[in-house]
Design goal:
By secondary structure, the chain is mainly α. It folds into two domains: 209 residues, Rossmann fold; 91 residues, Tyrosyl-Transfer RNA Synthetase (Orthogonal Bundle). Helix content is 53%, strand content 6%. It is built from 13 helices and five strands. The strands form two sheets. It has a three-stranded parallel β-sheet. The longest helix has 30 residues. The mean pLDDT is 96. The protein binds tryptophanyl-5'AMP.
């Protein structure tokens, strides 16, 4: 192995709109656990944000970058231990992404389902950045030679592409093991949180209905109301996972409960089996409020001092650059650039 570290974690979120329960349970909550076990870096991917929703909205990208930073810290990331930084401040990401654009094959990108979903019927009108988005994501990870990437299930295909890029680079430049093949870390009952209005649709920042998601900025009343209004079915709560068949909303709410409570889904099901949704929803609302309200309050406190957030981001970028810069210089030499 040319990598001098054993294990390193890199993950990130886009600063577009407001973070929601899916981002928290699918990613951030797992990051907090990992920061005590491995060396971690957490990125706010502002360059990804302008591929789509953040394009042409400079104030929104800047605001959301600070808000995502505040959410990381409020959710439990310690910036003294794990650098938090925005992608645009570390130019090595963009430099490696260009080289990876030349490694990745069109056929690989053509298979990316997230691009297909986001570009919809009018692929020709999507930005080139949206198309090559997963290549930048591979650069985000490999510019630190990260070995572990904690994400929600929707990012699995992008991580497979990252591994393909790493492997092809290593082969084509005859540098076996130069880049590690990073492991996706997709664990727990919150890796695919679904919409509260439709158990077959992913909870998403871009859903038109605000009732479909719980935002990390929602107050206690709003959280309770959204859970009360969440779609369910007319049957009592299921007793085991076989009974989830055809009941995506029940499955989703039980998974959310389990993820928030840090309990196995089986244990949660055993407790509520046969009960009506109304009582369960009351308990779920109380649990969600007790876990999320302190985070929301801390985010608000941090957001009141944007200069401090900017200072943290700059300090994080300095630490991140110290790792990324030598790696990207090395890669430039490997591909034949005079540097
Ligand atoms: P983004 O900003 O869409 O989402 C951030 C993280 O939240 C997870 N997530 C979910 N998990 C469970 N249920 C949901 N409904 C849900 N919605 C979102 C995502 O899986 C993700 O972990 N491409 C990435 C950002 C990125 C990145 C990276 C991640 C850029 N470079 C390098 C890891 C490593 C994205 O769009 O995430």
């Amino acid at each position: 192995m040319t990598t001098s570290h054993k294990q390193r974690v890199l993950s990130g979120m886009q600063p577009t709109n407001t973070l929601h329960l899916g981002n928290y349970l699918g990613a951030l909550k797992n990051w907090v656990k990992m920061q005590n076990e491995m060396e971690c870096l957490f990125c706010v991917v502002d360059m990804h944000a302008i591929t789509d929703a953040g394009y042409g909205k400079p104030d929104e990208v800047a605001r959301a970058t600070r808000e995502v930073t505040a959410a990381y810290i409020a959710g439990g990331i310690d910036p003294r231990k794990s650098p938090i930084f925005n992608q645009a401040r570390v130019p090595a990401h963009a430099e490696l992404a260009w080289i990876f654009n030349c490694v990745a094959r069109l056929g690989w990108l053509d298979r990316m389902t997230q691009f297909k979903e986001k570009s919809g019927k009018h692929k020709e009108r999507a930005s080139v950045g949206l198309y090559t988005y997963p290549v930048l994501m591979a650069a985000d990870i490999l510019v630190y030679k990260a070995t572990h990437v904690p994400v929600g299930e929707d990012q699995k295909q992008h991580l497979e592409l990252t591994r393909d890029i790493a492997q092809k680079f290593n082969n084509d430049y005859a540098k076996p093991d130069y880049f590690p093949l990073p492991e996706p870390v997709i664990t727990g009952p919150g890796t695919r949180v679904m919409s509260l209005r439709d158990g077959l649709k992913k909870m998403s920042k871009s859903d038109e209905s605000d009732n479909s998601r719980i935002n990390l900025t929602d107050d206690a009343d709003t959280i309770a109301q959204k859970i009360r209004k969440a779609k369910t079915d007319p049957h009592p709560l299921p007793a085991n996972e076989n009974e989830f068949k055809g009941r995506p909303e029940a499955e989703n709410l039980l998974n959310i409960y389990a993820a928030l409570a840090d309990e196995p889904v089986k244990a949660v099901m055993a407790r509520f089996a046969g009960q009506q949704f109304s009582g369960f929803k009351g308990e779920l609302a109380d649990l969600a409020v007790s876990k999320l309200s302190p985070i929301t309050a801390e985010m608000r406190r941090l957001m009141a001092d944007p200069a401090e957030i900017d200072r943290l981001l700059a300090a994080g970028a300095e630490k991140a650059s110290a790792i990324a810069e030598p790696i990207v210089q090395d890669v430039k030499r490997i591909v034949g650039f005079a540097v």
